[in-house]
Amino acid sequence: MLRQKLSFIPFAITLAFSILLVGCSGSDSGVGTSGETGTLEVQMHDAPANYEEVNIFVKSVEVNNADTDTGWVVINEPQQTYDLLELTNGATTVLGSKELETGTYEQIRLIVKVDQSYIVVDGKSHNLFVPGGNETGVKLPVNAEIKPDITYTLLLDFDAARSVVERGNEQSGISYLLQPVISASNQAETGNIAGTVEPVDANPFVYAIAADDTLSSTKADTSDGSFKLIGLEEGTYTVSVDPTNDTYQASDTSGVDVTVDKTNELGTIQLSQN
């Protein structure tokens, strides 16, 4: 079971989202007129969850350079299913990249096709239900500043553990709801923490914590115990290792510094047996 730390809401720019019907289609209006351009690249990664697969079908990725619900610009139309659980431990996927007029883009949204999104539990597939409709858009403020001839990489952390909600009753059985929880950061303003946990069979979850907030989490690689926590703001963290194998004790490493554009290599964290 995932450690209770996942219930904390991260600081920085983790935000609540609005669920929009896909009927609000994208538009290329509202783009600046300076004539200068830069590039916006959108990448996605994920926090771990106790499921076998969490598959999300992304129809399109759009940004908006206004503080209203107009001026949407389509970055890409992947029309593709992503298994979020393949995007842990430092792995990312590029959702799209586009050359844009310079300026600040206030919002981003993912158009998700829910009737092609599903979860796998105990070898069985279950549809993900979103209240309000089968096709939804998820948007959040990002304030991405596009500068001339520069690539701005926006890193989206899709938290599968908190985004999938299990519901059930005696009449309908268990069902799963998708209530997306995503944080966003400018990759150029973040750093990483990496290391290895031994013994490998501890099979632990690893968390980066500041004060009472869990800001990043992953699961150590099951083959060699390596882990990587990415997209962290500059600061000092506690790295908490929580084994799923009850034979081993949890371990906390405090005072772990993160510097922008650097990876703090912790080396090997050796867990003790109970």
From TrEMBL:
- What is the residue range of the signal peptide feature? 1-27
One Pfam match, by short name?
Answer: DUF4382
Q: Name one GO molecular function term.
A: carbohydrate binding
Q: Which UniProt keywords apply?
A: Signal
Which residues does the UniProt record annotate as the domain DUF4382? 37-171
What is the name attached to this protein's record? DUF4382 domain-containing protein
- Please tell me the species this chain comes from: Fodinibius halophilus
